[in-house]
Amino acid sequence: MSLSTPILIMLAGALAGAGLFYGLNRRSRTALVMGALGGIAGSLLFMVPLNFCMFETERTTLDIILGLILIVVGVLLVVIPLQWLFGRFVERRIAFTGSQAGTFKGTFTPFLLLAPTIVILALFLYYPSLDTFRLSTLLYRLGAKRSAFVCLDNFTALVDPDYLRSVFITLGLSLAIVVLGLSLGLLIATAAYQPVKGARIYRTLLIWPYAVSPVVAGVVFALLFNPAGGIINYVLKNLFGITIPWLNDPTYAPWAVIIASVWKSLGFNILFYIAGLQNIPKDLTEAAAIDGANAIQRFIRVTFPLLSPITFFLIITNMTYAFFDTVGTVVYMTGGAGPLGSTNTLIFRIYQLGVQNNDLGKAAAQSIVLFLMVIGLTVIQFRTTGERVNYGGA
Predict the structure, then answer these.
(1) Under a CB-based contact definition with an 8 Å cutoff, are residues 149 and 54 in contact?
(2) Residue 188: enclosing H or E segment and its boundaries?
(3) What is the Cα–Cα distance from 133 to 366, expressed in whole angstroms?
(4) Cα dist. 332→32, 162, 209, 391 in Å?
(5) Which residue among 115, 222, 257, 284 is the one 20 to 30 A from 90 at the CA level?
(6) What pLDDT digit, counting tens, does each position of 231-287 carry?
(7) Residues 106-128: pLDDT tens digits?
């Protein structure tokens, strides 16, 4: 790699940073200088730790594309917060005169109060995250005395049909778990909310499955769906004369995992939906009934829209559960990958690489990709469904 490559990258970062500041209505000369400096810092944010390895002569086109993406991301991560700070503290020149409620007179006290939280976050969140990024650039096996820097090879290796198939399997399983889990949770919560004798007892019993760990749920449902001696096939054979190879067939194995995962998260969904139903003003449903709306119309037009904050929250939490917390269920039900790889989810691949094969470098790279995927889906959810959430009571 020649010396001109870092210079060109910094120049491109400076132009991009200045352009962002200008485009965001910070059009003073000072703002352009700040934007250029921020752009240079952002362009070097990932390049310096990686030693500009993506632009070495022996690298592939995919490495160069990933390098350019990292430069753009780095510039955005630095310039956008810098632009916000510049607009808040420089251009607006906010000055506090006298004593105001809810403010500190000095700058030391708030940081002192925040110090315990900052220390805990640094030790248990930020440092492990940074170490994961470091491991993702290494050829590193657990127990090995040495490691080798491989740039982004652990990421470029993911452009593989087998990995892409795992992505689609994960998305399909997650979508089914979220949709079925929320639908059944709302249906059961609506029934459990009805004023009947002993409601508190069976509501508590409905919530209990959430206390069971995914591993235990996997063991239980592995016994239930056992093709040879499982109780589900026993009932199906006696009632309908059929048996289904639940855990041995790639068509049925994913559905067995979905059913077990939905059952595991069902109590959580029921709990929140019951709480949401209890907070719906009864005068709204009574007014709808007086206007001639039947039970189904009242549920669709009144109850369900008022449950939108609960539904939005449960979509995010169920999606996180489906992506990350189903590995125990998958391992104990189908052995992990399942028949013909039909349940080979992304989280199981990470477990297989990191725990079973001791390949921490590739496992770290895949965990970062999975993390970014979940973050991206969450952002999309906030940008789409989140805008239609109704937090009002009318």
Answers:
(1) no
(2) helix 161-192
(3) 11
(4) 58, 22, 17, 41
(5) 115
(6) 999 999 888 888 899 998 999 999 999 999 999 999 899 989 988 888 888 888 888
(7) 667 778 888 899 999 999 988 98
